[in-house]
Write a structure and sequence with these properties.
Blueprint lengths: L1 H8 L5 H10 L8 E9 L2 H5 L4 H19 L6 E6 L2 E8 L5 H17 L6 E5 L9 H13 L1 H4 L4 E3 L5 H9 L7 H6 L3 H16 L5 H22 L4 H4 L3 H9 L4 H24 L2 H15 L7 H7 L4 H12 L3 H19 L4 H7 L5 H12 L3 H10 L1
Parallel strand pairs: 4-5
Antiparallel strand pairs: 1-3, 1-4, 2-3
Helix pairs in contact: 4-5, 8-11, 10-14, 11-14, 13-14, 16-17, 19-20
Length: 392
């Protein structure tokens, strides 16, 4: 049933197929309106960058459990997982119900559930309500458009598509930049042509005359969102490239001249182009190998951190965290721990250093924590490991 609803959301089924399969899955045909709600954990990559695998799993489970708890009160609703930090709730309503009241009630319960979280915030985007289940894809599309506004109006909010200012929204999404070909230029990392097209854009904005500042905000915001969508197309996200996507947008908008705003925007597009190019060509491998070599040479430093290595590789820590796990198959913290404990095993085998001295040697200033970690990793305490090694 979840796969069927997912296919409906993504527009993979015809209206006829939807009607036929709805009956097969026992979906009540008496509902006459449907609303999609997108629920997304904010700054997922930032929140999880310093967590180990178990902690990340616990965080994701907590997020999912909060959603499921709210849906326990709405048995007819459907929950679809896009990613571990990104879900869609589909709410059907009957003609004798107050749809707005029902939707508001679900949103309020969701917000109350997530407001108590200390480690992360959540943005809830409510799509437009449609009359037929086959139109759920349109409701979901409008929810995604509302969710896009998180990058403009901030995270941790409830964003109703119907409440967005119609005039601004319509202008925002009607701006056509096909002539600028920015999508293909970003994908091919052609920075020279990006500059040229942004110069054309600058001239275009200036042509708006006295209303150019407001129009500039709309236009530049649209270009920014267009670039973020390209990240999604290649399997990435804004949080992988930028430490804080909202701050990036705000920095662009703080400029009070066309020139300043365009210059700041170009830096952003360059960074996205570099990411897309690397993603497509597999150049991440060399970067990860460079990071691993740095760890092997500096594992003994107790202050060694993800931020330090990200700076060494000249990328954001959030970005580094994601691509490291993607390319290495484990989190950076897990890799650092493994390198340090393998070194600790070597010291215990070939030296007479005491366990606490080995702890300091491999970058742990807390011998008790080191011993606990070592036993978790090897199944033995440092002393037991040394004794068993001697026997062998």
């Amino acid at each position: 049933k979840e796969k069927f609803i997912e296919d409906v959301l993504y527009g993979k089924l015809s209206a006829e197929e939807i009607l036929n399969k709805a009956g097969y899955f026992g979906i009540d045909s008496s509902y006459d309106s449907y609303t999609a709600i997108a629920v997304q954990m904010d700054d997922y990559y930032l929140v999880t960058q310093d967590l180990d695998t178990i902690e990340i799993e616990q965080l994701e489970n907590d997020f999912a459990a909060s959603l499921k708890q709210v849906l326990e009160e709405n048995k007819e609703a459907y929950l679809v997982e896009n990613k571990a930090y990104d879900y869609v709730i589909c709410i059907p309503s009957k003609v004798n119900e107050s749809v707005k009241k029902k939707i508001d009630g679900v949103v309020d319960r969701l917000r109350n559930s997530f407001n108590s979280k200390e480690t992360y915030s959540v943005t809830i985007a409510i799509g437009k309500t449609y009359r037929a289940i086959a139109e759920l894809k349109d409701s979901y599309k409008s929810a995604c458009e509302a969710l896009d506004y998180k990058f403009i109006i901030g995270k941790g909010q409830n964003i109703y598509f119907d409440n967005l200012k119609s005039k601004v929204r319509n202008e925002f999404y009607s701006v056509d930049y096909n002539d600028l070909e920015l999508d293909s230029l970003i994908k091919f990392a052609d920075k020279k042509l990006i500059d040229q097209k942004l110069g054309d854009l600058q001239a275009y904005i200036r042509s708006k005359g006295s209303g150019s500042y407001l129009y500039m905000q709309i236009v530049v915001g649209s270009v920014y969102m267009q670039a973020l969508r390209i990240l999604k197309e290649v399997g990435g996200s804004a949080e992988e490239v930028f430490y804080n996507p909202i701050e990036v947008y705000n920095k662009i908008m703080t400029h009070q001249t066309v020139e300043g705003m365009i210059k700041e925007l170009s830096k952003v597009l360059y960074k996205i182009a570099d990411y897309v190019s690397a993603k497509q060509s597999g150049r991440f491998n060399n970067l990860i190998e460079k990071a691993k070599e740095y760890v092997k040479k500096n594992y003994y430093k107790d202050e060694l951190s993800l931020d330090e290595i990200a700076n060494y590789c000249n990328i954001s820590s959030c970005y580094f965290s994601v691509i490291f796990k993607q390319e290495a198959g484990e989190t950076f913290i897990d890799y650092l721990t493994r390198v340090r404990l393998e070194k600790a095993k070597e010291f215990l085998k070939v030296s007479e250093l005491k366990a606490y001295e080995v702890s300091y040697k491999v970058g742990y200033n807390n011998p008790t924590y080191f011993s606990t970690l070592f036993k978790k990793y090897t199944g033995q305490s440092p002393t037991e490991y040394r004794n068993n090694s001697i026997k062998q």
